Amino acid sequence: MKIKYNYQFFSKFITFEGIDGSGKSTHIKYIIKLLKTFNINVIFTREPGGTPLGEILRNLLLHKPMHPETETLLMFAARREHIAKVIKPALKKGICVISDRFTDSSFAYQGGGRKILRNKIKILEKWVHPDIKPDLTLLFDLPLEIAKKRLSITKSLDKFEVKKNDFFNSVRTEYLRLAKKFPIRFRIINSNESIIKIENQLKKFLLSFLHKNNI
């Protein structure tokens, strides 16, 4: 007999990560649709951004030149507002939160790419959200040359997307380091596959996650 689980109150935090051009944004809608088939209340948000103030900071962060440490501090300022106004309230109501990027992006982009010391980012992480961690992180990974090719057809690129290969290699390396360090939380998606194969990967990971967290 098939067991039916009740996910009406599913207070989980799921994040999507990956280098620019990895295709993660394309598959967020699929995950949300899949979650809703289980009657899960879900909201989508993003970083930087997610709040009115966060969106103002997003525009600055993606388009204005600034010192790497200023960039890092602004990322966490936007994140603090995001947590207070969106993430925590939703989780307290039993709503599943899907976020396009979170603190892993700071370790990857500001740490790996910008060369901000990892310990400095850890201090900010502990200060800004000591009690908020993703329950599941889906890391979209693919070779750099494929990601760059995808970005080349984009009309308008932000200041990160135009970075050179060594920057993105460092970002990708840091993402893979995080995935290795936190294997229970991370699931690596081979983003160099067809959409159907990627959706199958996502469905497999999500069903396993739901099974482990059934109510």
From TrEMBL:
Q: Which residues form the Thymidylate kinase-like domain?
A: 16-200
> What GO molecular function annotations does the UniProt record carry, in alphabetical order?
ATP binding; dTMP kinase activity
* Listed SUPFAM superfamilies: P-loop containing nucleoside triphosphate hydrolases
Residue numbers binding ATP: G18, I19, D20, G21, S22, G23, K24, S25
Question: CDD domains under this entry?
Answer: TMPK
What's in the keyword line of the UniProt record? ATP-binding, Kinase, Nucleotide biosynthesis, Nucleotide-binding, Transferase
**Entry annotated with the keyword Zinc-finger:** no
Looking up PROSITE patterns in the UniProt record yields: THYMIDYLATE_KINASE
The reaction(s) annotated as catalysed by this protein in its Swiss-Prot or TrEMBL entry are:
dTMP + ATP = dTDP + ADP
Q: Which GO terms describe its biological process?
A: dTDP biosynthetic process; dTTP biosynthetic process; dUDP biosynthetic process
Top class in the EC scheme: transferase
GO annotations of cellular component type: cytosol
Keyword Transmembrane helix present in the record's keywords: the answer is: no
Q: What is its EC number?
A: 2.7.4.9
Function of this protein? Phosphorylation of dTMP to form dTDP in both de novo and salvage pathways of dTTP synthesis.
Q: Which family does it belong to?
A: Belongs to the thymidylate kinase family.
NCBIfam families recorded: DTMP_kinase
Protein name in the entry: Thymidylate kinase
Organism field: Candidatus Profftella armatura
